[in-house]
Design a protein that fits this description.
Length: 481
């Protein structure tokens, strides 16, 4: 009823409970919030019915918790959540066989009994007979009252028992969906790419259908367990594959030693979570996206480096792979990585909520340009943030299996050649990681370059290249079971 419903005019009355006195929100990443709503009610002694309006349309009624600060014996005897809200189609449907007034585009008022209404027409029974009005003729429809059973707002209808009665301050707590927060970081690289300025913005989104005025807002970083639908039966093995390659794989190999300094922390520790309290109360309106600055850090040291992982292989730890073709899917891209140490002595040292980081840099004209973005995981103090901002245009890698030898049923030996090209006009160092995926019992038999063992299945080469230089690494590894 696109045209006709848009023209509805209503004269309605509703009865609601006492106005909102104080509200606070604890908002989680996982698209839900704990709403804490405090109001003053005037209760009769015994059982009183109250319509508690302005609750979130996405409320979970089973999560409602009621307490009275003035009468510990007060309790809810019965609760009903009514959400059959006013909508054009429902209103006209409820008014079939009832009197309505239709205003036409010619300012003529036609009164009669509504027989039918749809997207295109309204059919009335008037004193002059049956009248059919098409959508283009209708300027509005006037309804005199709200039909029984329809509400203008989501409402909790309570039967409250209170022995004492009188004015009482009550607390309503409930979970509501479609309220969430996210973190967005904007970072500007210095010209020499050795430091950056970091701003962290909270993005608060309210799609709950209800506004919360003058609310105290707490942001919860962490993931409370909420049971999900199982993809596998309890008895079935669920394989856990590591990240595929490149920066996702390398992140798990880059721990930092603990430091001694912390920055100006904006978070509170609460059990296994971090709490970020907004400094001022704010209006969280329905259908609104609000942004508030939470973190600011200046001149944070940053290390830029190049990463090459020539194999796109994913493998299951502690499993052996004997197929000669396994692991040969090649990657030629060299990743550009920014590394930030989250330490107090490096102008940071605060708990960083997960979010999206966008990186900018000024060009020769001092105009800001976008250079890349990546996700920041939840990062504690003394942890490293690795941001993959793109692939190097002038650096190329190539990985080739040059030999595969099944020595025996329990031994395999293979050789790889890794070619790196630098087409830049400046020298670079490329960090090369090699995943030794066939098994954890291995030995490097020969290598043309020094390497470093990162874990039970990963080695690292640091390869320096002059401008327009090509270098080749060759190594042979033997696996034994």
């Amino acid at each position: 009823m696109k045209k006709i419903i848009a023209c509805l005019m209503m004269i309605v009355t509703t009865t609601a409970a006492s106005g909102q006195r104080e509200v606070s929100l604890s908002v989680y990443h996982d698209d839900f919030a704990l709403v804490k709503d405090q109001r003053t009610l005037d209760l009769d002694g015994g059982v009183t019915e109250f319509r508690f309006t302005d609750v979130a349309a996405t409320i979970d009624p089973t999560s409602v918790r009621f307490t009275s600060k003035d009468d510990p014996e007060a309790r809810i005897v019965e609760q009903n959540f009514q959400f059959d809200l006013v909508e054009g189609p429902k209103l006209l449907g409820k008014y079939i066989d009832h009197s309505v007034s239709v205003l036409t585009q010619n300012n003529e008022v036609i009164e009669g009994t509504l027989l039918q209404a749809n997207d295109d027409t309204i059919i009335l029974k008037t004193t002059n007979g049956i009248q059919i009005l098409i959508a283009d003729q209708v300027a509005g429809v006037k309804l005199t009252e709200l039909p029984e059973g329809l509400l203008t707002r989501p409402t909790l209808v309570w039967q409250i028992y209170s022995p004492e009665g009188g004015k009482q301050t009550i607390q309503l707590d409930y979970l509501a969906k479609q309220i969430k927060w996210a973190m967005n970081y904007n970072a500007v690289l210095a010209e020499d790419e050795k430091t950056l300025n970091l701003d962290g913005w909270v993005t608060l989104t309210n799609n709950s259908g209800t506004s919360f005025e003058n609310a105290a807002v707490t942001l919860i970083a962490g993931s409370p367990n909420k049971p999900q639908k199982q993809e596998y039966p309890d008895w079935q093995y669920r394989p856990q594959l590591p990240p595929s390659f490149g920066i996702d794989y390398f992140r798990s190999l880059s721990p930092l030693a603990p430091g001694t300094q912390r920055g100006e922390e904006t978070a509170e520790t609460f059990g296994e979570y971090h709490l970020y309290r907004l400094p001022e109360k704010t209006n969280v309106n329905a259908g609104q996206v609000k942004q508030i600055k939470l973190i600011q850090a200046r001149d944070v040291p940053v290390e830029k480096f190049y990463l090459y992982d020539g194999s796109k292989t994913r493998f299951i730890p502690f499993q052996k792979y004997i197929d000669p073709r396994f692991g040969l899917e090649e990657n030629t891209k060299v990743n550009v990585i920014l590394a930030i140490e989250n330490r107090g002595d490096r102008n940071l040292g605060v708990a960083l909520p997960p979010g999206l980081a966008r990186i900018f840099k000024r060009d020769k004209d001092q105009s800001l340009e976008f250079v890349g973005e990546d996700k920041v995981p939840a990062t504690s103090v003394d942890e490293r943030v690795l941001l993959y901002i793109g692939d190097a245009f002038d650096l190329v890698g190539k990985r080739t299996q040059t030999n595969f030898n099944r020595i025996s049923q329990s031994q395999i030996e293979e050789t790889f050649e890794i070619e790196l090209k630098n087409h830049k006009s400046e020298p670079v160092t490329i960090l090369v990681i090699e995943k030794l995926y066939r098994g954890s019992n291995w030995q490097i038999r020969e290598s043309s370059e020094k390497y470093q063992k990162l874990d039970s299945r990963t080695i690292r080469f640091d390869v320096s290249l002059n401008p327009d230089e090509t270098r080749t690494i060759e190594y042979t590894v033997r696996y034994q079971w």
